[in-house]
């Protein structure tokens, strides 16, 4: 990756364990494409009240932005059901599974485009 991985926490404290899990997930994405130039991951909790206390059970919102040549792949997991993604590890797993499909699809499209161009030449 040309640009260092960016991880942001909003509405919750920074966690070294969660950062390490995100780094592992991003490394796995890089196995599917060596053309990833940057990645930004945002982990958020939207509080329903104005209190600064974190209420147990509030869903985690995960956004992943992957930069590839000429494009940006985006996954935003904003659950509408308050019972969804109460566990941050499950929220991360689900978001990264969706991003993995996008990276694989993008890689396949790029390979197909290159093959068509080679066939025309």
UniProtKB/TrEMBL annotation:
Pfam families associated with the record: Ribosomal_S30AE
Protein name: Ribosomal subunit interface protein
Source organism of the structure: Roseospirillum parvum
Highest taxon of the lineage: Bacteria
């Amino acid at each position: 990756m040309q640009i260092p991985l960016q991880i942001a926490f909003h509405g919750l404290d920074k966690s070294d364990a969660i950062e390490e899990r995100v780094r592992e997930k991003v490394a796995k994405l890089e196995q599917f494409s060596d053309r990833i130039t940057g990645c930004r991951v945002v982990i958020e909790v939207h509080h329903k009240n104005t209190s600064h206390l974190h209420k147990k059970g509030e869903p985690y919102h995960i956004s992943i932005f992957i930069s590839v040549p000429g494009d940006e792949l985006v996954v935003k997991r904003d659950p509408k059901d308050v019972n969804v993604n109460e566990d941050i590890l499950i929220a991360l797993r689900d978001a990264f599974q969706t991003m993995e499909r996008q990276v694989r699809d993008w890689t396949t499209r790029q390979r197909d485009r290159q093959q068509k161009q080679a066939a025309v030449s």
